[in-house]
Specification:
The structure holds two protein chains of two kinds. Chain A is an all-alpha fold. Chain A has 13 helices and no strands. Chain A has two domains: about 110 residues, Orthogonal Bundle (Fumarate Reductase Iron-sulfur Protein, Chain B, domain 2); about 80 residues, no CATH class. In chain A, about 60% of the residues lie in helices and about 0% in strands. Chain A starts with a helix and ends with a helix. By secondary structure, chain B is of the alpha/beta class. In chain B, the strands form eight sheets. Chain B has a seven-stranded mixed beta sheet with strand order 13-19-14-15-16-17-18. Chain B is elongated and about 95 Å long. The mean pLDDT of chain B is about 95. The chains are: A mainly alpha, B alpha/beta. At the A-B interface, helix 4 of A face helix 10 and strand 16 of B. The complex binds iron/sulfur cluster (4 copies).
Chain lengths: ~210, ~775
């Protein structure tokens, strides 16, 4: 993986914008940002993360490859879509943020202790196994994300909420065993595999 | 009959005037005090029937002058236009009922206001005659264009298309000017996405083929003189060997100066290594590289290597207050850099045919300014093509092309290693000699020498810089058009573009303000229309801007003239010369009819047929001045008819109220205000005088450029007069007013009313 990172860094030496255009979903739109700062001002996460979308896009153009790919920003985006709604240049900011996160992960550059990155992985694992999000399992895995002891504590604290959800049929306990899946599960897996292959091939090719 | 004055006074009762005012009383005042021959009221004076009533009286010989007491002189001008008949407009609507509350308490003072205005109108009309064309001028439908760049070429073709003969004079051996040196220009039409052809070649061809146009290459004006309708110009051509041909003399009706711009000297920018590094170039040099490449890869000057990363430094030596830098924005260079970055992007794309070879282009700017309709689209197109824009201030460029700057978004210092650096250095107007500055310097030198003091080196240096004249005018005021801020030629940036203080000579293109090629072409078209108007009006003896079409004209009473030359000195347009006996000699076609000379004359011998010391002075005297114990002060407002008077009208339209004690008289320009009006007013018991004129100074809005300034200077001396009269200085106020000041004008009047309240009534009431 780090070889891939190195290969790409070498390949696009001095032109990170091009690397983003070629490898990040909707990355070609980054060049259209006019640095007005509306997204930065609209983002609820603005004060809480390292770089606002505006800054991230400027950094891409300023060739700050390492700083961008190691930033916590794209991992903090809550997908509220405020920025997309407001960007005068109509950049798909949220999608670019997620595209950058995906690319950083592929290159193994995710900040090690980033909790939202861990959550994103849990979510993906949950979703990709059966093609549907199993909320109960996702909740449980989230509780136990930081170890067994932590998990029990959190579960106990939320006991009442859980019971209420059961009562009002907001949670199905039988989902804990198996849970239901998409109709054609193997087809779904094949599709994911193919998509991953295509993505891999593109990036591999771009790194050459 | 012509000698006997028979005034008809017509009072309108429409627009609520009949309800608000006692018009019978007004009729009586016109008859008894105004001594008019006929006085009539009408319910709807501006309607066909009302107008017919007036016209019938004129036709039957019952009235040979009319006083219309109705709305402002700026309203219903079509209805109340009795050509050949002097007309005075009494402003009862905007001037009285619209600015006064409609209640019983105010009724008396409102009526008094109206009565005074009727008295004033009847007084004014006695001193008005119908101006007649002097027939002194001929019509010469020939436009001279100085400068064969895009501005001059456009002006020439526009004038020729309008049917005028054109002489186009160009100093170099080819048409095109700076635009001719460009590879392409920023787009001028939708979708504003790509650079476009400059069009210079086609334009030159069109001019060469047009038999209305004579082109003089390698030529300059060695002399020019005259006035609108009759300029005499000498054109001198120089040959390749340096010899000059005998000058040709042509006569023309008006002149367009399109002398263009000169690129700023980048050698002054030592921090950007321009003089040492061959790969640090100006925008114009970049155009040359692009022309040489002609669609192929652009190669850098030092070693011919194909460039990989080009950095554009915006505002190089511009928009800066550093010594030797330009303080202004040249307006085109942001778009120019985008365009040049596109040359590189487009060329690379063509050369690489889909491979990933890419030329990086980075534009470093502090503010990206892309004016014009398509500016924003062009910027977007630049981004779309992958031009990188970074907001940053460049501190240095070294010999190897390392550009150091502070990034204003990321808030950090950064360096880019570029193959080629393009400096956006901006333009300097090619505006000829600055006669005013020259006079100032030589006066300084003479003064110091007379005092046996050493003349500072800067002064000597500045004197020593040779500047070529463009027009070589044989005017007493100097050889070239006056210059305004930063050396741009006369002409107001916004209010009156192209207009200069030399009537019949119009400035167009970057000689008057920074601009791009498209704006220069629009400018050329505008100036051409002005030049045509000047020719046509001069032929009819009519004034040019801003009193276009006016036939009135100043004359002076020789017996009274003391030959003091004040009129000559104060005329903003250099319209007054002197005959060999020292008497003023008016140059009708150059005169703009502002009346500044009339305001300046200490013995008051200058007047127009319909505007004179008397036509205003008698209005001042016609007002009824109540005695001190009535507690009804009187305030006189002399308001410039160009901006202040319309502002008062608009205030009235909004029903902003002001004091009922004020009497407003419109004047052509504050410059036409003679101090005698002020002293007369104060002597006859007015309690305060307010003057309202346009903004003066470098950023003037004065329609006669210097009129308001002259008035301010004159009024600064009125304090002495006040002192001899033993009056408080606060009784006279001079204000600069813009046409948009509709909230402020009533306040200014009310302020004066308050002041009078505080300092008390004038002791000069009888
Ligand atoms: S709102 Fe859009 S254009 Fe503005 S800074 Fe954000 S991404 Fe750029
Ligand atoms: S979608 Fe993401 S980047 Fe955009 S405002 Fe919301 S949190 Fe911020
Ligand atoms: S047009 Fe752009 S580069 Fe030129 S002076 Fe103005 S802001 Fe600076
Ligand atoms: S001061 Fe005005 S009115 Fe008098 S001569 Fe000059 S331009 Fe004409």
């Amino acid at each position: 993986m780090s070889d891939l990172n190195q290969a790409l860094a070498d390949k696009y030496k001095g032109n990170f914008l091009k690397e983003v255009i070629d490898n990040v979903e909707e990355g070609d739109r980054v060049q259209m940002c006019m640095q007005c700062g509306v997204c930065a001002g609209s983002c609820p996460m603005g004060p809480h993360w390292e770089h606002t979308p505006q800054k991230i896009f400027m950094m891409i153009r300023a060739n700050k490859r390492e700083a961008v790919l190691a930033s916590d920003s794209m991992w903090m985006c809550t997908s509220c879509y405020n920025c997309i709604a407001r960007c005068p240049r109509e950049l798909p900011i949220t999608h670019i943020m997620h595209g950058l996160a995906t690319y950083a992960k592929r290159l193994n550059l995710v900040p090690k202790t980033q909790p939202t990155a861990k959550f994103a992985q849990l979510f993906w694992n949950n979703l990709s196994s059966k093609g549907r999000v199993n909320e109960l399992k996702l909740g449980i895995s989230l509780y136990f994300m930081n170890g067994f002891g932590e998990g029990v504590k959190t579960a106990m604290a939320n006991q009442k909420l859980g019971l209420n959800m059961l009562k009002t049929k907001r949670m199905a306990i039988n989902e804990a065993w198996g849970g239901h899946s998409v109709k054609d599960k193997s087809g779904f897996h094949a599709m994911l595999k193919k998509a991953a292959e295509i993505e891999n091939d593109t990036i591999e090719a771009n790194s050459k | 009959m012509a000698d006997e004055i028979k005034t008809g006074a017509y009072i309108c009762k429409g627009c609520d005037l009949g309800n608000r005012l006692n018009t019978d009383q007004l009729e009586m005042i016109a008859t008894r005090e105004g001594r008019v021959a006929v006085a009539k009221s009408h319910d709807f004076l501006c309607g066909a029937e009302g107008v017919k009533m007036i016209q019938d009286d004129i036709d039957s010989g019952e009235a040979n002058r009319v006083v219309i007491a109705a709305c402002s002189r700026r309203a219903k001008t079509d209805a109340f236009s009795f050509s050949e008949i002097p007309t005075s407009r009494v402003n009862l609507r905007e001037g009285v009922i619209w600015v006064r509350p409609e209640d019983d308490e105010s009724q008396e003072t409102t009526q008094e206001m109206a009565e005074d205005y009727v008295r004033m109108g009847c007084a004014e009309i006695k001193f008005m005659a119908t101006p007649k064309a002097s027939e002194e001028q001929g019509t010469n439908r020939h436009v001279l264009v100085v400068g064969g760049g895009i501005t001059g070429m456009t002006a020439a073709i526009e004038a020729a298309r309008a049917g005028y003969q054109v002489s186009l004079v160009e100093k170099s051996d080819t048409l095109g000017g700076t635009t001719g040196q460009l590879y392409k220009r920023a787009p001028t039409r939708a979708p504003y996405a790509d650079p476009e052809d400059t069009g210079v070649t086609e334009l030159a061809k069109m001019l060469e083929d047009d038999d209305k146009v004579s082109i003089y290459l390698n030529s300059v004006l060695s002399s020019s003189d005259g006035a609108p309708g009759r300029f005499d110009v000498e054109i001198s051509a120089s040959n390749a060997d340096g010899s000059t041909d005998a000058a040709q003399t042509i006569s023309c009706g008006s002149i367009i100066q399109a002398s263009g711009q000169i690129e700023y000297d980048a050698n002054k920018l030592t921090e950007f290594s321009y003089s040492e590094a061959p790969d640090v170039i100006t925008q114009l040099e970049m155009e040359a590289l692009a022309k040489a490449a002609d669609g192929g890869a652009i190669k850098r000057p030092s070693d011919g290597k194909e460039v990989q990363h080009v950095v554009f430094v915006q505002c190089a030596g511009q928009r800066s207050d550093k010594e030797g830098h330009l303080s202004y924005c040249s307006g085109h260079c942001c778009n120019t850099s985008i365009k040049q970055a596109m040359y590189l992007k487009d060329n690379a794309e063509k050369a690489a045919e889909g491979s990933s070879i890419d030329v990086q282009t980075t534009i470093l700017f502090t503010d990206l300014r892309t004016p014009g309709a398509g500016g924003e689209d062009f910027y977007r197109s630049g981004q779309n093509k992958g031009v990188t824009f970074r907001k940053g201030t460049v501190s240095a460029v070294d010999k190897n092309g390392n550009v150091t700057f502070s990034d204003l978004i990321l808030d950090e210092e950064d360096t880019i290693d570029a193959d080629l650096v393009v400096l956006a250095t901006g333009m300097i107007p090619n505006s000829g000699r600055n006669n005013e500055r020259e006079d100032e310097l030589s006066a300084q030198k003479t003064q110091l020498e007379a005092e046996n003091k050493e003349v500072p080196q800067e002064v000597l240096d500045e004197i020593a810089i040779p500047v070529e004249s463009i027009l070589n005018l044989k005017y007493r005021q100097g050889s070239d058009l006056p210059q305004l801020v930063s050396g741009f030629n006369d002409s107001h940036f916004i209010c009156f573009p192209y207009e200069t203080r030399r009537t019949g000579i119009y400035a167009a293109g970057p000689t008057r303000r920074p601009m791009d090629t498209q704006q220069a072409q629009e400018d050329a078209t505008g100036a051409t229309m002005k030049a045509i108007q000047a020719i046509e009006n001069a032929g009819k003896g009519m004034a040019a801007h801003p009193r276009a079409g006016d036939l009135s004209y100043p004359s002076f009473r020789k017996e009274g003239c003391t030959q003091c030359k004040r009129c000559m000195m104060e005329c903003p347009f250099g319209a007054i010369g002197f005959d060999d006996k020292g008497f003023p000699e008016y140059n009708e076609a150059r005169c703009r009819r502002c009346g500044t000379c009339m305001g300046a004359c200490p013995v008051r011998v200058i007047s127009f047929e319909n505007y004179s010391i008397d036509s205003v002075g008698q209005q001042i005297k016609a007002c009824d001045i109540p005695d001190e114990f009535d507690e009804k002060p009187r305030l006189l407002v002399l308001a410039c008819e160009n901006d202040a008077y319309p502002a008062l009208d608009m205030a009235a339209q909004n029903r902003f109220e002001y004091s009922a004690f004020v009497r407003v008289i419109p004047v052509r320009c504050l410059g036409s205000v003679n101090t005698i009006w002020i002293t007369d007013a104060l002597n006859s018991g007015y309690d305060g005088v307010v003057l309202m004129g346009c903004k003066k100074g470098d950023d003037y809005q004065c329609h006669f450029v210097k009129g308001s300034e002259m008035a301010h200077t004159r009024m600064s001396k009125i304090a002495d007069t006040l002192q001899t009269l033993n009056l408080e200085a606060e009784r006279v106020a001079v204000h600069e007013v813009a046409i948009t000041d509709i909230h402020r004008v009533p306040e200014l009047i009310n302020d004066m009313a308050k002041t009078i309240d505080e300092i008390g009534m004038s002791p000069f009431k009888f």
